[in-house]
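Q: I have two molecules that I believe assemble together. Could you output structure tokens for the complex as a whole instead of separate predictions?
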Amino acid sequence: MTAIARVLAGILLLLPLAGGGAEAIELDARADRTEVDADGRIALTLTVRGGQGEPEVDLGSTTGFEIYSAGTSQSISIVNGQVSSSITYTYLLSPRGEGEFTIGPFEARIGGEAATAPAIRIRVTPGAASGAPPPRESAPRPSRGGEARDVFLTTALDKKEAYVGEAITMSFRLYTRVRFAGDPEYEPPSTEGFWKEDLPPQQRFFDDWGGLRYSVTEVKSALFPTRPGRLVVGPARLAYVEDAFFSADPFDLLLGRGASRRRGAKETIRSDSIAVRVLPLPEAGRPPDFGGAVGSFTLQASLDKTETAANEPVTLALTLEGEGNVQAATVPEPRVPESFKVYDSGTSTETSKEGYRVRGKKTYTRVLVPRYGGDYEIAPVSFSYFDPEKGEYVTRTAGPFRVRVDGPPPEEETDRMEIARKEEDIRYIKEPAAIRWEARGERPSLFALLGWNVLPLVAFGAALLAHKRRERYARDPAWARARRAERVARGLLDAARNRAGDPDSREFASALSRALVGFLSDKGGIAAAGMTRREIERVLEGKGADAPLRERVLRLLETCDRARYAAPPLPSEERGMLLAEGEEVLRGLEKLFAESRT
Amino acid sequence: MKRAALALALFLPAASAALADPRADALFREGNAAYREGRFAEAVDRYSQVRSLGLTSGPLEYNLGNAHYRLGAIGKATACYRRALRSLPRDGDLRANLSFVEARTIDQTLAPSRLVLLDVPSRLASRLTWREWLVAGEIAYGAALALAALFLFRPSLRPRLRAPLQGALVVFGLALLLFLAAVRDQAIDRRGCVIAGEVPVRSGPGPRFTEEFVLHQGTVGRLLRSAEGWTLLRISPELEGWVPSSAIEEI
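A: Yes, here they are, computed for all two components at once.
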């Protein structure tokens, strides 16, 4: 079952790809009966075939019935390579009274395509109390693909048209006749555009549908639309895993059939979306003190005493009570004589949700302190609201109040008055010309910051090392010569190689000799002019050179000296040999000095 | 300071967080208009829609807090003002409104039981946003590196550079410490505010566990973990318990 459902779901996803162009849609509306008693229910199924996308379904006239959505089901068939799909909407109709009623005509729309189905006449006969018991066995029952549903959701609103701020009661029901393995995942309907108040308590009861007993969990909420237009209460979603052991028919278990039908398989069901038409509050007749309250309210005001003395407080209590979103209601401040100081001693709000209706009481208490004696009048306090039942604005007033204050009257000419705060309140909202938005929950990437800030540190370290090296070169010439010895000697060897073809071999021999002597003098920290044969031997012995290397060095230098000062020009073959010997000896000396350093 | 922040933001991706969103701007203005006309529930709806776009800002949270307060929801107002503090830590209006609603919270603030010294970095860090601490730290870091380079490569300037270099290093160390404290307090620590008028706190995640004490709207605590629709809330090291997740709002 689950595997097949997955395959079908996959094919459904691919349908838009395989469908090609727009397809004409068909609408079929059926009621499982046309006569029902007042206690019974009718299952109305609307099947939309063809088209692409989710249809918008209009039930037309539903006078005389409470409508509950019992969900949707999709089916797909592939015949000879032709793919066709249909969506079936199931509604449960509960009669409100007896008589003849017409439901429909029905209409379905997908994009620009529309299809209609004719209206259905239903006759509602007296209920079980006044007649024969209802045939429960044949009562409607939500089904999908011919199979009875064990779990389904319904969402219902008590009205589909309301004013901004008017309370709409949403009833959400979960019908189940199976036991869940673990807690189901419930995602409530989205109510964007509404102010939502939950209406506890959650109710649990049993209800019979189609001869089967369901356990029903009902949750109610009050929705207050916050803007006019078409608002949509989105679908609720429930994902659950059926506990097959406890849910299966015991005979099935004994016979080894069906018990593991859905064990471990997660099922997801959804209720339908419901659209609400929200009317704007009328402009005509709107009182100037109207603050947005919608419902039905009363206003009461009282003074704890009507006679007092100067600087002795009097308490004025204003109580706003009624049905509607009382939290959104605000009462205008009382206008008191200027010689009174006013202190806010608190506002309390009590909300009641008894009988699944949002009622509330908001009490404002103001402490009034008269400063001078005399007879005073506190102007009436008024509160305006919109009554959606009557469709008009209503203004409630309380007062005026008279207070007699004993004490000295105010002086004719008053001196400068101290600035006294009458009442404390929060500061006003911010309205910046331009606003810089930030991503919610943003955190700094410490890793990136660390990586970024290490770069200048590394550059700083490299510059420091280079600086230290330059300082050493300047401070220690012998060390600098030793560091450069190999590079200088290689340069002189290259010069000798370049001079190897000269007619005169003296420059060649001079360069070769300077390469070797210069290397030894630089490494030994001795001036080149002081590099006599004895000194060269001393340096080589000091570095642990073996006798053959020492002899090769001395012999090569002697040959170079002869070529420079006495002998006729060296033949080119001999120059080549001398050059090769010089390179080999230099390599041997480099190795010798490298080993002695380590 | 703003110029320095802007200059650094060009080089530091982490510090450049400003976004432009015309849709959010329009909703924000609609919310302000609704508030001006006393339609506070509608203002809450508009401001909340901006938040549902994944965006926030100091003025948005501040205004949302005001609208909630006007509707009598002190807990939600407190949560909004505390969120706004992350972007507007030195805003006088915000501090005034937060003090105003906190004064109306029934549960009194409990004395901190840990060492006062441990709170000093948090208190100092709360004076700036973590982005501002980052900019301050980067400036001090750059100055310390430049002074160190001069100190090493220009020996003749060393006597005059010693004190500024030491100062820059100390400032950098402090800025780094406070940046980390600000990141912890403003971006990592999960805190929540009670938004239900009164909520029993239980010894476990469910109504079958013992009710240990009661909290009222506006009380703030640390969110430790959640399970099965319940959240473990810590008010102080000695006072913690489970409340329904729907009764609190994360700050």
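A: One point stands out. The radius of gyration of chain A is 50 Å.
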